[in-house]
Amino acid sequence: MRNAPRSEDIALAIRRRVFEHAMRNNGGYLSQACSAAEQLAFLYNEALTLGPSTMPMIPPPFGGVPSAQNPDYVTGAGYNGPAAPEYDRLFIAPAHYALVAYACLIEVGRMAPEGLEMFNQDGSSVEMIGAEHSPGMEVHNGTLGIGLSTAAGLAWGRKRRGEPGEVCVFMSDGEVQEGQTWEAVQAAAHHEIGNLWALMDVNRQQCDGAMDDVMKVGDIATKLRNFGAVVAEVDAHDLNALRQAKAMPHEGQPLIILAHSSPTKGMEFLMRRFPRLHYVRFKSAEERAEMNVAIAQELGIDPIVLEDH
Amino acid sequence: MEMVNRPYASAFEAYAVQHPEVLCLSADLTSSCEIDGFRDRHPDQFLSLGMAEQNMLSFAGGLGLAGFRPFIHSFGVFLYRRPYDQLMASIAYPRRKVRLMGFLPGITTPGGMTHQAIEDISVMRTIPNMTVLEAGDATEVESIVAEADTVDGPVYCRILRGAVPRLFDSPLRIGQMRVLAEGDDVLVVTAGITTEEAMRARAALDAAGVAVRHLHLNTLKPFDAAQIVEHAASVRHGVVTLENHLVAGGIGSMVAEALAEAGLARKLVRLGLRDTYAHGGSRPYLMRYYGLDALSLVRAVERVTGQETGITEEALGAVRVDAVHSAVKAEAL
User: Fold this and answer.
1) pTM (whole model) above 0.90
2) pLDDT, mean over chain B
3) Are residues B134 and B214 in the same domain?
4) Are residues B13 and B151 in the same domain?
5) N or C: less crowded end of chain A, CB within 10 Å?
6) CB of A233 within 8 A of CB of A221?
7) Which of B58, B82, B150 to mutate to test the interface with A (most CBs of A within 10 A)?
8) Domain containing B233 — which CATH number?
C-alpha cells in the first residue's frame, strides 16, 4: 500500500523535471517552475476535485484545429478528467506555464514522462505555449487576460445548472495589467459567481523583466477587493498557507488567492540572471555546465547527463 | 410598403422563451438593441455585462462551454473592433455557439465612425469557423433569430432595428440567396438595406428597357460562389454589387473572387464605401452622399451596359425617409 503523495514532494519533482528538460533542451521556462511548483502541485494533488484522466498517458499527435471538417477534435481537458457536474474545471491562464503544467501532469500520474519529450516538437500536441489541444488545457489562453472571463462564464453556467463542481483559474500577476482582468472580476462580483476561484502566481516578473520596471500595478489585493473579489495573500511556497487560503469563505464572490512567490525558489543560482527570467537560455556551454552542476545540487540530484550538440 | 416596428424584439422574445439554453447578453445597449422588454419580462434569461465587451465575449465563450447559446447584443462595431482577440480565442477558434447580433450595420446609424460597422463583413468572413448573415427586411430580421441558432458554431448577424420594411414573405434560410428578378442584361447583387434601393432602381430600369437579374444575399459566409458565377454567366453585360459596407472585403470582393476563380470575364462595378470612413447623418443622406442609393445603382448599370437610360432622380420615385426622432425609434443612436 502506498501513502498518498505529498504536495511538497510533487513540487520538488516538478522543479527537478523542468530543470532536467531545460538542461537537455538548451533552455526553458525554469523560473515558472520555481514560482509555481507548489501551486500546481496543490491544485492537482489537493485542491481540485478531478476525475481520472480520459486521455492516453502518451499524448496523441496534433489532431487538427476545431472545424466543421474535424469531427474527432478534442481538447486536452481530458487529462484533468471528465467534464462531469461534480468535478472541478481548471484553466491555466498563462499558457507560458505549460511546461510546468505538463511536468505536474506527469508527477500526479496523468501523463507519461515520454509526453514531455514531445514538448515543442513539430506535429506534437504538447505545445510550448499551451493550446486547447495540449494536455491539461481546455481553452486557448496564450493571449493573456481571457482566462478569468472564460472561467467566469463557465462558472455562471454551472451555477445556473446546479452543478456542484467549481471553476478554478491559475493566473499570473502580469495579467492584472490587462484591462480585461478587471472587467472579469467586476462581472464575477456583479453576478455573484461564488463558484469561481483563482490562484495567482505573484512573482512580480514578466517577459521584459521585473513588473515594477515594465508597468507598475500597485497593490493588487486592494484593487481586487475594490472590484468585488475576496482576496487572500499567502506565501506561494507554503502549502499550509495555500490550504488555509482556499478554505476562506467567499459566498457570492470570486476568491482570488495571491500567492507571493520567488521566481528563483529552489534554483537560487538563477538570481544571476535576474531580472531576465521569463525564458532562460544559456549564453555559453560554460554557463550551461555551471548551471547544471549548481542547480542540480540545489535540487538534490546529480547533474543532468548532457548529450553533445 | 408595410413597415414593421421592432421586428427583432418580438421575434427574439418568442424564440428565446421556448429555448431555456438561449441567454440574452447585453453591454449597456439594451433598449438600443430592442431587448429591454425581454430584460424586464425574463430577467432570469438576461445577463447584463456592462460596458466591457472584452469580458463579455470571453464570458460568452465560457457560457458556450457550459452548454448555453448566448445571443450577444450590441452595435456591430462593438462586437469585433475592441474585442477582436477575444472573438478569435474565446468564440471563433473553439466554435462556441455564440450568436453575435450586430445592430446598426454600415451607415444605418448617425453615430459616425465610432458607431458605423463598415468593415464588419470583411473582418468576419475571414475568421475561420464563422458564419455571417445579414437581414434585409422585417421578415429576415424575424427569421434570423431561429435560423442563426441552428448554426453549429459562432454566427455574426447584421440586424436592422426600429421601423423595418417588409420585402419578403418567406423566411431567411442559411445558404439560400433570393433571386428577385431574372433579367439577362445586368446582374445586380445586394444585401441588407441596399436590396430595397435596388428594387426601386429595378422598376425604373425595367421601364427603360434594361433587364436586371437581381440577387439578394442573406448568407455572406458560407458564400455560394457557384451560384453567383452561374447568374453572372447568364447576363449580357456585367455585374454591379451594391453594399452597405466598404467595397474592399465585402460583397463586391466576394463576387470578384468568385468570378476570377471561375475564370469568368465579366465587367464588375462595386458600389459601396470606397476606402473611406463615413460621417454622421441620416440614412438617406449618407446613402446618397456615399453612392449607395438607387440613383447610384442606375448610373452604375449605365456604365456596365454603356447606354444611358435617361432615368432621373425624380423617376426613381419618392425616396423613403426615416424620421430619425420619431416615436418608432427608441433613440437616435
Assistant:
1) yes
2) 94
3) no
4) yes
5) N
6) yes
7) B58
8) 3.40.50.920
Convert B185-196 to b/e letters by CB count within 10 Å (16 or more is b): bbbbbbbbbbbb
User: Cβ–Cβ of A139/B85 closer than 8 Å?
Assistant: no
Fold of A7-55+76-299: Rossmann fold (3.40.50)
Alpha carbon of B164: minimum distance to chain A alpha carbons (Å) = 34
Q: Looking at residue A209, what is its pLDDT? A: 87
Q: Write down the mean pLDDT value for chain A.
A: 95
- What is the tens place of the pLDDT at every residue in A74-125? 999 999 999 999 999 999 999 999 999 999 999 999 999 999 999 999 999 9
Range of the domain at B19: 9-165
Q: Are B15 and B160 contained in the same domain?
A: yes
CATH number of the domain that B159 lies in? 3.40.50.970
Nearest to B243 by CA among B132, B85, B79: B132
- Inform me whether the pLDDT recorded for B295 exceeds 60: yes
Best mean pLDDT range from A205-214, B171-180, B320-329? B171-180
Tell me if B250 sits within 8 A of B223, measured CB to CB.
no
CB A183 within 8 A of CB A150: no
| CB-CB neighbors (< 8 A) of A152 in chain B | 55, 59, 62
CB contact under 8 A, B90 and A139: yes
Name the domain count of chain B: 2
A183/B93 touch (CB, cutoff 8 Å), yes or no = no
Residues 6+ apart with CB under 8 A from A223: A176, A182, A217
Both B76 and B117 in one domain: the answer is: yes
Q: What is the pLDDT of residue A277?
A: 78
Closest CB to A150: pick one of B47, B85, B90: B90
